[in-house]
Amino acid sequence: MIALFDKNHGQLFPDAQIVKMRVIENAKMMQHPVESGTVITDYKVVMPAQIILTIYLVRGAYRNTFAMIHRAYLKSTEMSLQDRAHYYSKLVISEMPHEESAEVFDGIILTLHLTEVLTVKPKSVTITKARKAKHTPTKSRGSIQPKKSSLLLQAFNKAKGYF
Questions:
Q1: What is the mean pLDDT of each run of 10 residues along the chain (163 residues)?
Q2: Which are the contacts of 30, defined by CB distance < 8 A and separation ≥ 6?
């Protein structure tokens, strides 16, 4: 059984019949060349899971069910999905194309694209005060010229006099 649930584990869209499901779990392999010219892969970044559901909305209930799904899409409602093999959480509807045809005269075929929401908690870093006065910022001191110029600048200034 495949079913969609809300945060309180209540079933979402009970009148929608899930006909087909496709799960895409992939990762980006980080590759870079080394001095010898070969390319190595040293780590990977796991991408958010994507789930594509083909749903049949039955006659008599498809208007209400479609409206509920569309509302969840617009509000980015977090949901979870349980299938035979795995439990996917923190999913939102990222696309919801649908088609209507004479072949399916008593309902609507809807394709839901669900994308896993991955969140990152930022780490905070404390900034310490500079220990010496020379390491303090130049705020309120204006623009300060360097005391010594570089050797390249000194050579350039001497060469200007020869031209």
A1: 87 91 93 88 90 90 90 94 90 90 83 91 74 62 64 71 59
A2: 41, 42, 43, 44, 45
